[in-house]
Amino acid sequence: MTTPQRAIAAAATVLHAEATEKGRAWGIQGIHAAVRGAIEEDGRQLGQVVIAGFAAIADEGAKTPAAIRWESRYSTAVVAGRAVRIGPTCAVCGRAERGCRHAAAISGDPHVFSPVEPRRLPEVTQ
Ligand SMILES: [Zn+2]
Fold first, then answer.
1. By the 8 A CB rule, do 98 and 86 touch?
2. How far is the CA of 62 from the centre of ligand 1 (A)?
3. Count of domains for the chain
4. Which domain holds residue 118?
5. pLDDT at position 108 over 80
6. Amino acid 126: pLDDT
7. How many Å lie between the centroid of ligand 1 and the Cα of residue 98?
8. Alpha carbon of 53 to those of 58, 113, 121, 122: distances in Å?
9. 59 and 86 share a domain?
């Protein structure tokens, strides 16, 4: 399933508004490129990218919109253009352990990483 260009543009507009509100001098073109790259090259889902974008904007260590694609903001790793789940995710915030700790350090919400193993798909029987 591909993400429509207008949905990518809408996400970029939302993130640009947030960045401007927070005093970030990030241009809409740079944000759009990062959002599109995260979706079309990294295989991220639109909702994940918007959440990662808000985290990037709040992260003082993030100097450019490229930070929207930082792997630590996602609970999945990128393998050859596809996102695959890496290990257990946090029951509180839904991130992998590294992302959970990173987000907690930024947001000041230091909840304890509470691992949940990825759900297994039920086996198909004939
Ligand atoms: Zn967490």
1. no
2. 20
3. 2
4. 75-126
5. no
6. 46
7. 9
8. 9, 21, 30, 33
9. no
- Listed in sequence order, the DSSP H helices in the chain are 5-21, 28-40, 46-58, 97-107
CA of 5 to the centre of ligand 1 (A): 31
CA of 97 to the centre of ligand 1 (A): 7
Whole-model pTM: value is: 0.63
Would you say residue 86 has pLDDT above 70?
no
User: How much distance in Å is there from the Cα of 105 to the middle of ligand 1?
Assistant: 11
Both tokens of 61, joined, read 């260590």
Mean local confidence (pLDDT), 90-100: 79
> Is the Cβ–Cβ distance between 32 and 68 less than 8 Å?
no
Ligand 1 midpoint to CA 69 (Å): 19
pLDDT tens digits for 1-33?
688 999 999 999 999 999 999 999 999 999 999
